[in-house]
Amino acid sequence: MDWLKGLNPEQQKAVKHNYGPLLILAGAGSGKTTVLVSRTGRLISERVAQAQEICVLTFTNKAARELKHRVGVKLGSTGKGLWAGTFHSFGLQILRRFHKHAGLSPYFGIVDQSDCNAILKDLLKDVKNSGKDKFDIDKILSMINDRRTGIAPAVEAFDEYHEMAEVLAPKFAKRLEHLGVVDFEGLLIKPLTLFKENPDILEKVQSMFTQVMVDEFQDTNRMQMDLINQIIKPHQNIAVVGDDDQSIYGWRGAEIKNILNFPKEHAKCEVIMLERNYRSSAEILAVANAAISKNKNRHGKVLRAEIAESTGVMPEMFLLEREEDECEFVVSEIHHFQRQGHKLKDFAVLYRSNTQGGLIESSLRRANIPYTITGGTSIFDRREIKDLMAYLKQSLAPNEVSLRRIINVPSRGIGDTTIEKLSEFALKKRINFVDACRFWKEAEVQDKAGESIDNLMKFIEDLPKNILDYNIGSSPGAKMVEIFQGIGYREYVYGTAADPASAEKKWMVVEILGRILDSYLGKRSYDVDSIKSFIDAMLLRDDMGGEEEDQNKVQLMTLHASKGLEFPIVILAGLEEDLLPHKNLGSDIDEERRLFYVGVTRAKQRLVMTRCQQRKKNGVVRPVAPSRFLLEIPKELYTEFPLGVRPVSGQEREDLVSSFLSKLDSKLTPAKK
Ligand code: ATP
Ligand code: MG
After folding, report:
1. pLDDT tens, 311-354?
2. Residue 560 C-alpha to ligand 2 middle, in angstroms?
3. What tens digit of pLDDT does each residue of 483-498 get?
4. Which long-range contacts (C-beta less than 8 Å, at least 24 apart) are formed by 354-361?
């Protein structure tokens, strides 16, 4: 099998590398990910390693899926067993496998940020001087996490937040342990502890994975680096690829030095640079290079455009008056390029903040342009999804966090007094809340509420079985929706929504979850284990793939979520001071500039940039200045349009006019009876 075909000499060199450390440091679109895929395939087909001995760590689960797919297409069953996923899914896999040693039950649950917030809020109640609503829980949680992961700088101003974080950090860890659940940070911390305390397990893992590869290495943090170093210790077969210019997660603890110091810290490391860009047109690349050249402390790479020739089309910059105009402009641009034969899936609209995304989303919706939102706050954050997931989690891994969430949702007569009684009883008897619910009689809960608890417990216990017992001609997802309708969840949604329209939307979320379940189950076996792995996948925000992926839809996403992806046409919106660079970031302008660079380098053929003259901030419309990143690019590298919209060509104008006239005509001519 020829895994080297079509690759340039440097890429081939990387693909042919067999053993020992390898660093591929190269700019955007230079084929780093391509090399990882080919190398994975070649290692397997040339029997350097078996598929199941290879571990590829990617930045998103979607990227992992793509890699497995590309290798699988060429290798068929020889490619089976290859492990690819994010660091979080890697940690999860290790903990599931060695759960006993990690002190966890086989079906331990994973808690997400909102669960953690609830736990923290609860802990805060018992701390003196914590005052109601005095503290921003998100902020404390992130400070606690920084402490746990060793990200917090040693010297820092000590204020009441730090004090609180210090007090709560150990309590928080203890509470998670007591609940038998793991949070996202724990998915990295716990495997490290597990390895430290059980050298035999570490050895097992080391021999399980004899080849390790990491994509987007510039955004690994200290724990992830530790994890890698542990696994590769005996064999040092580690290949990492990355681009220091695309490091955009410093705010989350990613350390650029991981990539820059890699050769120093890994003896006999081979370093390969890739200098040709195969993605973007020469014109787009010129803008990207001009932008990033303003950063200090770079490793300094050149990127030459390699695709056939320059397209002759410059990146474009449009100025709009207000943000509403910008949104309308995005719509008109999509129509414009559609008329030139582009498909909807050719477009990505990229922005810095989710607020911008929301505005653009609603104008696409109004214009009936199908879109998907990749990453970011999405359906996973919807209350309805969280409720249903809590039921599912509870059915497979009983835990206090999800039980408390759903105990009276939809309402079933289990009020605060009952919950209080159960909590006190649990405390007194030193049992957990879930068990306390089983002994409601002893907890002196009234019969009526107690019977509700019994019914709920029975419902939860039977849930997976009942979902899988779907009707002929139907599906597990549809059955799940039906089951929840059966216990009054639909009425609950309608009863708690502000108006019928929003109730309908909420209920739709439930139906979407049903469809996601079906698409996840797909070819998997329809059993409890599959539902279990569905829950894990949902918790890790693994977009479920399947039907969503190949659809012809415009893609909306934040700049952060766009990493590693590419699109024929990129619309980069909101190039303004305070948005990009973002105002909350204080000093790290370089990281913001890298984010701009990431955005620009996603584009293959066309790059359309926009900015507004004024934007709403805290409810007040204010004038805004163009992004400094824009001003840094020499004017001759892009076309700037005066205020307004894209001038249309003669032909396009004629088409527009005649389509308008024919619409008008049909309105004026009375419909035939
Ligand atoms: P990023 O830094 O954005 O993650 P990357 O370095 O991982 O980019 P890839 O996504 O692997 O780059 O490749 C960019 C594009 O170039 C892809 O469309 C890929 O198919 C193409 N490509 C890579 N190498 C070659 C090559 N030797 N010949 C032709 N096309 C190539
Ligand atoms: Mg890549």
Report:
1. 778 999 999 999 999 999 999 999 999 999 999 999 999 999 88
2. 14
3. 999 999 999 999 888 8
4. 354/558, 356/323, 356/573, 356/574, 356/579, 357/556, 357/557, 357/558, 359/323, 359/324, 359/327, 360/326, 360/327, 360/330, 360/556, 360/573, 361/556
Considering the segment(s) 380-544 as one domain, its CATH architecture is Orthogonal Bundle (1.10)
- How far does Cα 272 stand from its chain's mean position? 29
Cα distances from 203 to residues 104, 488, 660, in angstroms, run 20, 51, 71
What is the per-residue pLDDT for 673? 42
Is ligand 1 within 6 A of the CB of residue 243? yes
Which helix (H) or strand (E) element contains residue 291? helix 282-292
Q: For the beta carbon of residue 303, count every other beta carbon within 10 angstroms.
A: 24
473 is in an annotated binding site: no
Q: Does the beta carbon of 280 lie inside 6 Å of ligand 1?
A: no
Q: Using a 6 Å cutoff on CB, does residue 29 contact ligand 1?
A: yes
Catalytic residues: 32-33, 215-216, 246, 602
- State if residue 12 touches ligand 1 by the CB under 6 angstroms criterion: no
The mean pLDDT value for 230-247 works out to: 95
Strand partners of residue 85: 57
> What are the φ/ψ torsions at residue 211 (nearest 5 degrees)?
-135, 120
Q: 293-370+551-651 — its CATH code?
A: 3.40.50.300
Query: Is the pLDDT at 591 greater than 70, yes or no?
Result: yes
**9-99+187-274: CATH number:** 3.40.50.300
ipTM: 0.99
Residue whose pair of structure tokens reads 């793939």 in the numeric block: 545
576 Cα distance to chain centroid: 25
Q: Is the pLDDT assigned to residue 18 strictly greater than 60?
A: yes
Please, are residues 269 and 21 in contact by the beta-carbon 8 Å criterion? yes
Q: Is 423 annotated as a binding residue?
A: no
Coil vs helix vs strand at 394 = helix
> Same fold for the domain at 9-99+187-274 and the one at 380-544?
no
d(CA 520, CA 615): 41
Long-range contacts of 447-454 (CB under 8 A, 24+ apart): 448/413, 449/413, 449/414, 449/415, 449/418, 452/412, 452/413, 452/414, 453/407, 453/414, 453/418
Cα separation, 58 vs 87, in Å, equals 7
Write out the two tokens for 320: 């709009």
Domain coordinates in residue numbering, the chain: 9-99+187-274, 109-179, 293-370+551-651, 380-544
Report the mean per-residue pLDDT for the chain: 87
Nearest bound ligand to CA 14? 1
Q: Do 315 and 283 meet the contact criterion of CB atoms below 8 Å apart?
A: yes
Residue 484: what pLDDT? Answer: 95
For 539-549, write each residue's pLDDT tens digit: 776 655 444 55
Q: By the 8 A CB rule, do 603 and 569 touch?
A: yes
pLDDT of 273: 92
Q: What is the CA(328)–ligand 2 centre distance, in A?
A: 32
- Whether 188 contacts 87, CB under 8 Å: yes
Q: Per-residue b/e over 276-285, b at no fewer than 16 CB within 10 Å?
A: bbbbbbbbbb
Q: Which of 27, 600, 627 is nearest to 283 (CA)?
A: 600
Q: Is 27 annotated as a binding residue?
A: yes
Q: Look at residues 272, 380, 244 and name the one whose alpha carbon lies nearest to residue 15.
A: 272
Q: Model confidence over 78-133: pLDDT tens digits?
A: 888 999 999 999 999 999 999 999 998 887 888 888 788 888 888 887 776 666 66
